[in-house]
Structure formats: structure tokens, C-alpha cells
């Protein structure tokens, strides 16, 4: 199965990166790129696409305004340098929200999510291209983080949750507590989706390690973790199987 997509961004360098990433992803077919939303609207009136890779901040018409103008909306992945639009993006039911600069691994996880959703909604007998599966498996198996004295390997399957501790993040497993000096974007990039989800400005949780959810509190092992307003819709969509 091929995903026919278009990319919209008013920064030529950003479009070049998206084009390169699409060429490296076997199941993506990049039909066209645009540097403004007006031309995109005209194209979408006469052409069917499966996925839009959409920048938010553009002159004349923003990415959000473009989405609101569409009568039929394909899958959308927002690409932006600003995290202030994250909640608005999820309110519009976008497939993912990528903060620039975008790594290829993070891009691959986002488009892979769209591929899986298209399989469920369209052709469940289709199989993902082997090279795409291999790349995704490499991302999900393990990751490395810097501590004060060394670089440590962490197996994603062992992580219970990740907790913000001032300038540090603490990665918690049943046997270890690993402190790493990373920002939230860095933590998000190394944690494989959809196994992990951000539920609070200070917490990422492993979905398969959740014991139960009561109202807006998650119980994992001996820890109770709150779900904040900003992240609750995405979290509950994931555990209810909507993503």
C-alpha cells in the first residue's frame, strides 16, 4: 500500500527535508509540494490525497485555517517550530504533531502511525514494506541517553514511565532509575510511539505498563501519575483505540 501525500511549508529548507524523508520511506508517494496554503486548496479541489504534511505558520492562510477550510480532510501531520499549537492540533484530530527540527526517526514514527490507521480503515490484508518495518523495529527496540558520567542503553520494553525533575528527566524501570539531562523534545524523540504517551508536562508513560486509569490518574506499579488537560484527549484516544 502506498500513501499519496503532499507537503506544505513556506520554508524551502523545510520542504527539502520533508522531500528527502519521503524519498527514504518506501510506502510514501509525495505527489506535490507547496509553499503556501492558497495553492494547496486549489490542488485539493481536484486531487485526492491520503496525507498532508502541513506547516502551521504561513502568510495569508495558516495551516490551521487551511484545515478548517477543508470539507473532506485526509490524514494530517502538523510540522512546526512552535509547540503552542499542540492542543489545537489534537482538537482537530491530526495524526501527529512534529516539532522542528524533525529527525527522520520521529518522522518515520508519525507516518507509520498513519499507515497503520489506513490499514485498519481500508485494507487489513495489506502488509507494510519490509524496509519500513525494519526501520521502525530498530527505533522501538532500545535507545541511548546521556547521564552525568556515561551514555546508557535503555530497553524501551523495560521503561515504566519518565518523570521530569527540574532540568533532568528520570527514566524509571523496575530495576533502575536513570537521570538524564534532556529537554522534553529529546525525551519524546527517543520514546517509541505508540508504546509511550505524554500525559502531563512532567510525565511520559508506557501504555502497556498501566495497571488502571481512575478519572484522570494513572496507576503504574507503585506510582500514581496525573493526566493534565493539555494531554488528556490524546491519551484517552490512544487507550480507547482511536489512535
Written description of the protein model:
With 243 residues, the protein is an alpha/beta fold. It folds into 2 domains: 3-128, 3-Layer(aba) Sandwich (Rossmann fold), CATH 3.40.50.2300; 141-239, LytTr DNA-binding domain (OB fold (Dihydrolipoamide Acetyltransferase, E2P), Beta Barrel). It is 35% helix and 30% strand. It has 8 helices and 15 strands. The protein has helices spanning 12-24, 37-46, 63-69, 86-91, 104-121, 130-141, 184-190, 229-239, and strands at residues 3-8, 28-34, 51-55, 75-80, 96-99, 142-146, 151-155, 161-165, 168-172, 177-180, 196-200, 203-206, 212-214, 217-220, 223-226. The protein has a 5-stranded parallel beta sheet. A 5-stranded antiparallel beta sheet has the order 10-9-8-12-11. Helix 3 (63-69) links the parallel strand 3 (51-55) and strand 4 (75-80). The model is unreliable at 123-140 (pLDDT under 50).
Amino acid at each position: 500500500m502506498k500513501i499519496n501525500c503532499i507537503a506544505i511549508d513556506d520554508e524551502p529548507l523545510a520542504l527539502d527535508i520533508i522531500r528527502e524523508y519521503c524519498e527514504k520511506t518506501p510506502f510514501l508517494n509525495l505527489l506535490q509540494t507547496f509553499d503556501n496554503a492558497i495553492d494547496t486548496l486549489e490542488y485539493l479541489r481536484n486531487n485526492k490525497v491520503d496525507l498532508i504534511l502541513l506547516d502551521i505558520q504561513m502568510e495569508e492562510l495558516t495551516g490551521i485555517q487551511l484545515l478548517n477550510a477543508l470539507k473532506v480532510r485526509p490524514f494530517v501531520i502538523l510540522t512546526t517550530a512552535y509547540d503552542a499549537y499542540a492542543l489545537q492540533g489534537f482538537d482537530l484530530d491530526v495524526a501527529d504533531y512534529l516539532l522542528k527540527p524533525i529527525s527522520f526517526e520521529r518522522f518515520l514514527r508519525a507516518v507509520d502511525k498513519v499507515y497503520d490507521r489506513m490499514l485498519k480503515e481500508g485494507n487489513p490484508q495489506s502488509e507494510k514494506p519490509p524496509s519500513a518495518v525494519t526501520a521502525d523495529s530498530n527505533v522501538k527496540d532500545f535507545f541511548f541517553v546521556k547521564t552525568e558520567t556515561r551514555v546508557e542503553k535503555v530497553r524501551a520494553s523495560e521503561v515504566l514511565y519518565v518523570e521530569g525533575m527540574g532540568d533532568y528527566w528520570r527514566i524509571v524501570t523496575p530495576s533502575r532509575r536513570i537521570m538524564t539531562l534532556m529537554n522534553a523534545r529529546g525525551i519524546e524523540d527517543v520514546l517509541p510511539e505508540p508504546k509511550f504517551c505524554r500525559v502531563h508536562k512532567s510525565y511520559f508513560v508506557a501504555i502497556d505498563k498501566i495497571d488502571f486509569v481512575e478519572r484522570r490518574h494513572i496507576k503504574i506499579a507503585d506510582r500514581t501519575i496525573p493526566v493534565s488537560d493539555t494531554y488528556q484527549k490524546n491519551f484517552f484516544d490512544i487507550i480507547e483505540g482511536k489512535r
